[in-house]
């Protein structure tokens, strides 16, 4: 599968990056992992056709991870002429939160007739789910966002890709990341304590226990970006908008 980092920032766009969104092209088709508010902008920078994407997986219900669904909808309705069905998988409550956000920003948009089927699927904690040929296991993490937050472990094309979502350190990250070909891990801070987020020192101390073959840090906040030169480990890289990797 081919991974493209559409956006790699924290909630604040630190470093001029776009908010969280990853694109995966695989034998099972194309899907997105998270859809932050700036996702469409990033998708067009990478020359990706939204109509080829069949599924969007959401980790948790913060705007920098699901807010882009609102712009996705109006683009699908008014520009892309979408007819292909779209499935959005996420925490219980996603459909309701999406509708509230969409109606606040573009009143009436959820009632506009659609030429495509839009289906919401909810995760069950720690229970594998297959959507559009992609097997995903949602691991509960710790990050208050009005609904259960998850790390997501994807199995596709015989490979494993795990994304931590946003979270403070929890032991469930270990089975989520174990043996993964790539573990994309949020790293909001370098060494400063960050409530409900990870810092590099915690990740570094747990790298062997996580047991992933490769680790990519994302969601870096200002203090992490200022110290990025000090983040050094042979298994660890830092995500950049537009970066592509074959997994
Ligand atoms: Zn976030
Ligand atoms: Zn968050």
Under the CATH scheme, which architecture would be assigned? 4-Layer Sandwich
Largest sheet, in brief, is: 7 strands, mixed
Classified by CATH, the class is Alpha Beta
Shape: globular
Ligand set: zinc ion
- In which order are the strands of the major sheet placed? 6-5-4-3-2-1-14
Return the string of H and E elements. Answer: EEEHEHHEHEEEEEHEHEHEE
Mean pLDDT: 98
Number of domains: 1
Percent helix, as a range, is 10-25%
Features:
seven-stranded mixed sheet; 247 residues; binds zinc ion; 7 helices; Metallo-beta-lactamase, Chain A; single chain; alpha/beta; 22% helix
Account of the protein in words:
The chain has helices at residues 39-45, 63-66, 68-78, 94-105, 173-177, 200-210, 222-226, and strands at residues 2-7, 21-26, 29-33, 53-57, 86-90, 118-122, 129-131, 134-140, 150-156, 159-163, 182-186, 215-218, 236-238, 244-246. The strands form two sheets. Strands 6-5-4-3-2-1-14 form a seven-stranded mixed sheet. A seven-stranded mixed sheet has the order 7-8-9-10-11-12-13. It is globular, with a radius of gyration of 17 Å. It is an alpha/beta fold and 247 residues long. It binds zinc ion (2 copies). One zinc ion (ZN) is lined by residues 60, 62, 65, 143, 145, 166.
């Amino acid at each position: 599968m081919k991974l493209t980092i559409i956006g790699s920032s924290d909630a604040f766009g630190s470093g001029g990056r776009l908010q969280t969104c990853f694109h995966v092209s695989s034998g099972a088709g194309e899907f997105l992992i998270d859809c932050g508010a700036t996702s469409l902008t990033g998708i067009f920078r990478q020359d990706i056709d939204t109509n080829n994407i069949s599924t969007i997986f959401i980790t948790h219900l913060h705007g920098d991870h699901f807010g882009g669904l609102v712009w996705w909808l109006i683009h699908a309705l008014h520009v892309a002429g979408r007819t292909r069905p779209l499935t959005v998988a996420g925490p219980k409550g996603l459909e309701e939160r999406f509708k509230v956000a969409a109606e606040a920003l573009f009143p009436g948009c959820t009632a506009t007739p659609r030429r495509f089927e839009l289906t919401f699927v909810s995760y069950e904690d720690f229970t594998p789910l297959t959507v559009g040929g992609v097997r995903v296991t949602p691991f509960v993490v710790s990050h208050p966002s009005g609904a259960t937050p998850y790390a997501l472990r994807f199995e596709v094309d015989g490979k494993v890709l795990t994304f931590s979502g946003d979270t403070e350190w929890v032991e469930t990250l270990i089975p989520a990341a174990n043996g993964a070909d790539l573990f994309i891990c949020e790293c909001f801070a370098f060494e400063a304590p960050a409530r409900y987020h990870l810092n590099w020192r915690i990740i570094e101390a747990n790298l062997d226990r996580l047991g992933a073959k490769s680790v990519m840090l994302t969601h870096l906040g200002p203090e992490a970006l200022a110290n990025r030169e000090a983040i050094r480990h042979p298994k660890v890289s830092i995500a950049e908008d537009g970066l592509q990797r074959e997994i």
